[in-house]
Each structure stands twice: as C-alpha cells, then as structure tokens.
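Need Indoleamine 2,3-dioxygenase's 3D structure for a figure. Predict it.
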Amino acid sequence: MLSTLEDYDISPLTGFLPSTPPLRRLPSYYEPWEVLLDNFHDLMLAGRLRSSINKLLILDTNLLKTLAEYRRAFLILSSLAHGYVWNKFDEVSDRLPACIAKPWVKVSDYLGISPVINHAAVVLWNWRLIFPDKPFDLNNLATLFTFSNTLDESWFYLVTTAIEGFGGRAITAIMSAILAIKARNNQNLLIALKDISSTIVDINATLQRMHEKCDPYVFYWMVRPYLNGWENEDRLPRGLIYEGVDGNDENGNPIYRKYVGASAGQSALIQALDIALNIEHYPTGVKPRINGHCFMKNYTSENSCLRFESKFNNNHNNHNNNNNSNNNNTTQQYPSDENSIKLQQPYLYKIRQNMSGRHRKFLEDLAKVANIRNYIISQTSYDSNITTYSPDEDMEMLQGTNEIVQAYNECLNQMKNFRSKHLQIVSVYIVIQARRNNGNSHSNSMYYSQINKDEITSTKEVTSTKEVTITTNTTKVKTTTNKSIEVKGTGGTNLIPFLKQMRDETMAQEIQNPFE
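Structure prediction for Indoleamine 2,3-dioxygenase:
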C-alpha cells in the first residue's frame, strides 16, 4: 500500500524536486567546503584543487540539521570529490582523501544514496530561480554549480530539471489512476490516463530543447568526464579508495569501492512512469518467457535459454556475495516462478541506489500496486452472451473501454517518443563525439581546441548546436569517425542497443483493442 506522497519526499506540485529551491549556503561551520566550491574553477586552472582539498579538516556532519542541508552537503562533497578524482590537469586519482570521503559517506547514508555523483546532485538539488517571484520554468532557472563553468553544462542540467518539474502532475495522475481502478471508476481512469499522456507530451517538448544551448562537443569533452563513476571505468579498474572509511582487507590491502556515475536512468520520474504503465525492461538482448517459452536474441534452443538463465542468476548471486558489506552498490535478484523466469533489467534496479532512499522506496511500493494495464485488459474481456446490461448500456460500456485502451496506448506512444528523442540526443551528444578521432577527453589540446572549433572540420557536423539537426537520420558525420568503437554509458551499458531495446519494450505493452 502506498503512503502519502510527503512520506516519500515527493511534492504534488514539483514531483521529485524539492518543493522549495535548494539551499544555496550551509551554516558557517561548513564554510571551508563552501569556499572550496566557490573557488573550484580558479583552483582547477591553477593546478591547486587537489592540494587545497588535501588541507581540509574532517568536518562533523552531525551539525547538519535539515534535509535541505544534507542535500546541499551532498552536492558540495560530490562536486569536490569528482573534481579531485577526474581533475582535468592531473592524472586520475584512485584515492579520495578522508576529509571528503568520510563526511560524504555519512551524508550519503543519511540520504540513503550511494556516495557518487548522480542525477539527484546535478539535477534535483542544483537549481535556483532567477526571479524568485516568478513561476518555476526553464527560462527562470539557473544552476548552483557546474564542473566546466560553461552555459552548455548549465543548460544540460536545467533542461532535465525542468522535465522533473512535470513530476508533480505525472505522479498525481498516476495516483489518481490507481484510485480509479480501486473504485472501478473508468471515467476517472480515462481522465488520469489523459493527464499522464499530456504530461509526457510536455516532457518531450522540453527534452527537444536540449540542442538549443548545449553544444555536443562541450558536453562530451568538457562535462561528461566529471559525471563518470568508478565502475566499468578503464582508468579506475579496481574502483576508488574512500580513505578513512573502509580500512584494509584481510591481506592488508586497501578496499576499493565501485559505483556507476550520473545518468538519465536515475530519474525516479521516468522509472515511475514505466512502473505505472507496466512497461517491463530486460537485460540487453534478452526477451522474457511468454507462456513458458523463451524468447531471446542470439539464443536458438530451450537448453541455451536455460543455460543463460542459470548463468545470469549465478552471476548476480556471486556479485552480491562478493560485495563489501559497507558498499551500497548492490544488485537485486530478479523474480521468477516455476513457469517463467522474468529477468528484469539489472541496470535499472542497480541505479536506484543512486536515488535518495525515499524516492527508491516509492518506486518499490508503486510496483506493488500498479496494475493499470492488467485492469484495462480485464475490461476488454467482454462476453455478450453473459452480460446483464441492456444493449444501450453494452454499447456505452464498449465505447468507454475503447477510449481507455486508446488513452493507455497513447501514453505508451508518448513514452516511445520520449525514448526516441533520448536516443537521438545520445547519438549526437555521445556516440558521434566518441567515434571522432579527437584523442581522449582529458587532453589539454582538446580543451583549447574548443576555442577554434571551425579549424577541426571544414564541413558542418556535430560541433555546434547551430550546425546540428537532432535527428539521427539527417546528422552528418565525417568519414573519419571510428564506427568500431563500442560506446558505453556512465553506468557501463552499451548505449545504443540498450536504449533501442527500452523503446521496443515500451511499445510491446500496447493493448490490442478488440472493439475496433
């Protein structure tokens, strides 16, 4: 049973965003943290960020009193930590000093979130209103912090913040749909489904604005490196040492932690929409069993299907057993019964650890009561031979059910549109950039070449928002791109197959209307 939205730290107006703008300054005791963040870019440029952080004293987190203060502390410590590890002008560090690591872990534990940069830090808790007396709107938002000190990075976060601002409408409509089903009130269910659909339309329109003020080149080479975590990361193959937190293992070796970095998949809003609409996602290349039969790409026999399922579950059991008890980076075992093995997408469960604890709890509880699709299917099971209604009442019921099916399918269609737009953005902002022969993102020459981007290419391509059409079929790519590179997300997923499958899985839930 769902609790009140307030119990999950969800606002009926702003959704998963705080109902009031995030705190902009901690109490004076934490001024050393604030001063470092104030001077972040100057210290980075001077090559003194790490040495300045190393001089910090370990501050007591018990003096943080409010949820807003804990959120602000998490943003500061996440920013300093990722600046320390991924410092553009230094070698990557596999150690985080205790002055950051210890308070960061304590703050994270309080929030029920992994100590790593995430969607919550850069999107949910990283904004302010330019004009406090004006409404929440993309054109009235500014960021509190960016790694690159560019307008592009601010816009990248703020577009997503604006999308999250629609969460209040979406969650309220989802709750209304659940209540309507409980009361078997199809008219209210229809209204709720139309509200959900119209909200996703607004989300899509906002997402489409990403290209207006965020240059793909700037994002990929100057912003994205700082959003990486330390799992599935070639430059930190063992992960990161949180000094002063975990100590050493039985052999006297320091303990490393592994966490995935920030990603759009960590949006509780998008996961909530999936759950409410009963959209199910599976490991890339895997399809669920249907009526006892296994449907998997690249698996041609029942024996290979069973071997895969056994190997899949064993891998996750071993992963859980090997995790350090202090490490929040755990994976959930997937549900199964004697007739089918339902393998839910492990990455989507895993990244819930990068959500605040109460938001994660909401998704878990929502999954227990969300039955919109099953209820609608039950309403389409119409038998004229056993109905007790009059012909006119029968026709009215059929028409009402037809409208509900159409409204539900339109929600799926808008979610498909969202995933298509997201896929296009990923193609332009990540895949094409990664496949260009430009060296690595920590090269100083890459930083300065941003000044003279026109010298990089004599043809129009994805180096400026003015030169890009956000459509994968029309984007021009130089022949010098390296198409053999497998592009992975900050969470280690193979991006394009992962996102395409999520889009396909969305429309797979479409209900065939028996009355048409």
